[in-house]
Amino acid sequence: MEDLKKRFEQAKERVFNLKQKPDNDTLLKLYALYKQATEGDVKGEKPSVWAMKEYAKYQAWEELKGMPPEKAMQEYIKLVD
């Protein structure tokens, strides 16, 4: 588990140091996987559809409901690689 957490942190650092910004779909997936890995299932009230950015982020995270944090970390690492 420690190795997974270390690889996850390294992947997170690589994302912050990308030379080119990923497309919006990839950014949403990275966000959702990160949140699922670090906080678990989605929390809080669903934003209004008029708050498009917040709504999209909430939706992406909500789709991962029930995914174990370890699986989310693995998927995050895989996506970054």
Account of the 3D structure:
It is a single chain. This protein is an all-alpha fold and 81 residues long. It has a single domain (2-80), classed as Acyl-CoA Binding Protein (Up-down Bundle), CATH 1.20.80. It is 67% helix and 0% strand. It is built from four helices and no strands. It has helices at 2-16, 24-39, 52-62, 69-80. Helix 1 crosses helix 4, helix 2 (24-39) crosses helix 3 (52-62) and helix 2 (24-39) runs antiparallel to helix 4 (69-80). It is flat, with a radius of gyration of 13 Å.
Summarize this, please?
The chain is mainly α and 81 residues long. 67% of the residues lie in helices and 0% in strands.
Which spans of ≥5 residues are poorly predicted at pLDDT below 50? Answer: none
CATH-level-2 architecture: Up-down Bundle
| Cα Rg | 13 Å
Number of domains: 1
What are the secondary-structure elements, in order, as H or E?
HHHH
In total, the number of strands is 0
CATH fold node name:
Acyl-CoA Binding Protein
What is the overall number of helices? 4
Structural class: mainly alpha
Q: What is the percentage of strand-forming residues?
A: under 5%
Ordered list of secondary-structure elements with their pairings:
Blueprint: H1 2-16, H2 24-39, H3 52-62, H4 69-80
List keywords for this structure.
81 residues, 67% helix, mainly alpha, Acyl-CoA Binding Protein
